[in-house]
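Our working data are protein records whose layout never changes between entries. The record below serves as our worked example for the rest of this section:
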Amino acid sequence: MRLNQNTYPAYMKLEAGNYLSVEVDELILKEITENLDFEQIKDSVLSFTSAMSSVYELANTRYYITEPFMKAIVTAYPKIKDGNKHFKDIPNDCGILFTNEGFTLYLTNPLDKKMKLLAYGFTRNALTTFAFLSVDDRYGGVACSLKDGKPFSDNNYLQEFINGVLTSVYFIHNCETEQKVVKPREKYRANGEKHFNESKNNVVILDCRWFTELIRDTPFHVKGHLRWQVHGVGKQKRKLIWIQDFEKQGYHRKATKEITV
């Protein structure tokens, strides 16, 4: 991931506060302005943009979903779906999910308590999906697509989009993850992937070692640190101890989950 004006121009316009300059798919504009006179059209577009900008201003965390993390979400989905946990136990959250293709701005459980989810899906360049889910699990919005060279609202994708956002948010808040905060102008490299955050906000790189076997043969230095040490009968107690600096002689860490084919 490299986050800058050239790679994610739509996001950088949001970050700069240039909400009206964000490119919006014509099909979305048509849906929010259809059968309205000029003044109503103007008010409708401004209201839609104002709502989107309000959600952006509330966004407290920006996540980048790596391929291993996405694979873990897909693997966990049947278990999550089994009890519809991503619909019943939606965490209160507002943030942005980046992928290699684009990003999604989302808000769960707004204060008006009429909605479970508001979400805006972007390619790297433009807003192409708007979705909402009501408290009684009715969904709506527009998912822009093409069929036979003509634009249309893809209802199947709209459902998949809502399901994908809720599953991702649920997974982030309830499953084992590895998170690395990359500050503005900071570079980070892991698992062969380079990350460079050229935006004004922190970005959390999400990773998961479920399927990754890590091998490090060369020694490396470990700084002194505090650690909770188990002790006592039945190892039921914990005490805080200080671990001095030391040199670790490498490690071989197996994947934390086995894959069954």
About this structure: The chain has six helices and 19 strands. The longest helix spans residues 38-58.
